[in-house]
Fold this protein.
Amino acid sequence: VQLQASGGGLAQTGGSLRLSCVVSGSIIRINAVDWYRQAPGKQREPVAAITSAGSTNYADSVKGRFTISRDNAKNTVYLQMNSLKPEDTAIYYCYADLNYYSSNEEIVAHKKWGQGTQVTVSS
């Protein structure tokens, strides 16, 4: 089972980016999925979260600018980032609560991190 985050890049202040987190492998169920970010010299912090039912939650710093969504048919969670600010510059990680089959076909409940995607916002 792997989480592949993509969509990062360079944006100008006020611009937009859309991040994707694709979950692949022997997935049974994708439960809650979170996006975190880590800026240079800072701790990793939660940005947005979405439950399996589609309920969402956001950090105060991104409310009204970021939108998290999911496409269960594609095993993908998105983070639409609008009105970007230089302080949004960070590596963004997805973090998923999963149920999946292990290599010996046991059912596993586990939380996994994606590899991160860099977002840089220029002023």
